[in-house]
């Protein structure tokens, strides 16, 4: 599928702020399943953009606005072609025993706890119940996805970006970010490498997908000998060509679309406006 994405974020401040420093993970990822044709990033007030690759190989832009300003607008436009990682079918039949022999050091960060993810005895017990004796890695990961979709309530505005997985575990409510964290924690507790994905979701005219109105999040699990495969517990679907990947990491902290800080009075931010449009360009 070929998509055009428009994403604008605007911060409003009650009083002038200055020395704003920001990191952006907004450039769609390019790999064998996605090809970026066009990307443009605009900042207002105007700022000099620089970029680097972070520890997780995400493309990160950063900029500073030293002078006083009362608003900050970040706008990205991109055109991208995507292909489903599942076009050759699901990676079924890989047994758990391969997780002990086929994992390299690069996968270790995706097996333990992180800032928003916990691998506790409680999570492990839940994972064991969901696994129910199955010996196949992807099938168990899918079962985790189905369980979260069935047992947790999708509740917009019930959490925020700093909500920990344990709170979602207790309340059984949340949004896409929370369900991704929960699935990551359960999978890791079972020894399945799992990582967080931030991106966009195309919700076509006949679709009823949650999370397409803003930046979306899902989970990817690593299947030995096969690679990374995405699962979207918010919608109970595999992450296919409708899912546009931006960044990956251990959790939201590593893959947040926009992070930053500024100097100004406490509580200076008075408003946040977000516009997002994902338009299909190939019919």
Brief synopsis:
The chain is of the alpha+beta class and 283 residues long. The protein has helices at residues 98-101, 121-131, 137-151, 165-171, 176-189, 252-255, and strands at residues 2-24, 34-44, 50-53, 59-65, 69-82, 153-154, 173-174, 194-201, 216-223, 227-232, 237-238, 243-249, 258-263, 269-280.
Can you walk through the features of this model?
By secondary structure, the protein is α+β, with helices and mostly antiparallel strands. The protein has 2 domains: 2-82 and 256-280, Immunoglobulin-like (Sandwich); 98-255, C8orf32 fold (Roll). It contains 6 helices and 14 strands. Strands 1, 2, 3, 4, 5, 13 and 14 form a 7-stranded antiparallel β-sheet that branches. The protein has a 5-stranded antiparallel β-sheet with strand order 11-10-9-8-12. It has a two-stranded parallel sheet with strand order 6-7. Helix 2 packs across helix 5 (176-189), helix 3 crosses helix 5 (176-189) and helix 4 packs across helix 5. The longest helix has 15 residues, at 137-151. The mean pLDDT is 95.
